[in-house]
Task: inverse folding
């Protein structure tokens, strides 16, 4: 009986020891897993988060540098209906001076376009122009010298000599000295040559025509002899004084002047 009880006790002790070893081995192998499960189920206290109040933060506005240019803010485009048609807008004309208002774009555009320079003259053209100038000066001198040879000669209707000469006869004889023939009357002479407008471009040798009686028709002719800064003088033959030189810009002959022709 005692032997039976001892055997049972030994068997129970062996079983208890084996069970304890298995339990202790399981604990060592799965310690990390048990710690994870513990930390997951356990609420760990977190440190408090600092949230600053708005009244403690000072707001400093942006101060832009006056030298720095800021980019303009692009406004959002307005949505248009799909069926709405947009008309093309012509670009604004550019002004040469951005500080002035462009009140007349056509004028500014015309001023902005500079004329093309004239092509340089060839050597032949320059030579021809020089020869023409020399010839004109020579002929003008001959005209003036011939006309002044009749100075103080008395007036004679239809005359062409130093005994007496009329206005058209004086001019006709002067041009005859350079080989040019002119009509006999002043009215016919007024249709010969190229008409010159104004007194600014007059040259020695040009023919000036007058309406001496203010009757509405040309009845007198003279020839330019001198162009000065103050006055322009011409030679002609008058009924009262014969061949004399007068001022074209004077109070008597300027209002009666009707036409100027250039024959040279």
Result:
């Amino acid at each position: 009986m005692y032997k039976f009880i001892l055997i049972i006790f030994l068997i129970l002790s062996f079983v208890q020891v084996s069970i304890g070893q298995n339990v202790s081995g399981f604990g060592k192998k799965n310690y990390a897993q048990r710690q994870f499960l513990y930390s997951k189920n356990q609420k760990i206290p977190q440190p408090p988060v600092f949230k600053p109040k708005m009244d403690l933060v000072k707001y400093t506005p942006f101060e832009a540098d006056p030298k720095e240019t800021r980019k303009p803010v692009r406004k959002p485009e307005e949505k248009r209906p799909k069926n709405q048609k947009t008309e093309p807008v012509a670009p604004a004309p550019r002004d040469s001076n951005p500080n002035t208002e462009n009140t007349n774009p056509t004028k500014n555009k015309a001023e902005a376009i500079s004329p093309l320079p004239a092509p340089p003259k060839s050597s032949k053209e320059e030579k021809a122009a020089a020869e023409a100038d020399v010839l004109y000066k020579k002929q003008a001198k001959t005209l003036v010298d011939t006309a002044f040879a009749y100075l103080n000669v008395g007036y004679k209707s239809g005359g062409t000599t130093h005994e007496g000469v009329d206005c058209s006869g004086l001019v006709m004889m002067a041009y005859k000295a350079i080989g040019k023939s002119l009509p006999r009357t002043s009215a016919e002479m007024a249709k010969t040559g190229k008409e010159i407008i104004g007194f600014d471009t007059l040259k020695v040798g040009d023919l000036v025509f007058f309406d001496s009686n203010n009757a509405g028709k040309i009845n007198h002719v003279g020839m330019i002899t001198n162009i000065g800064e103050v006055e322009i003088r011409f030679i002609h033959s008058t009924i009262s004084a014969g061949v004399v030189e007068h001022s074209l810009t004077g109070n008597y002959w300027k209002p009666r002047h009707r036409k100027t022709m250039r024959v040279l």
Notes: DSSP finds six helices and eight strands in the chain. The mean pLDDT is 77.
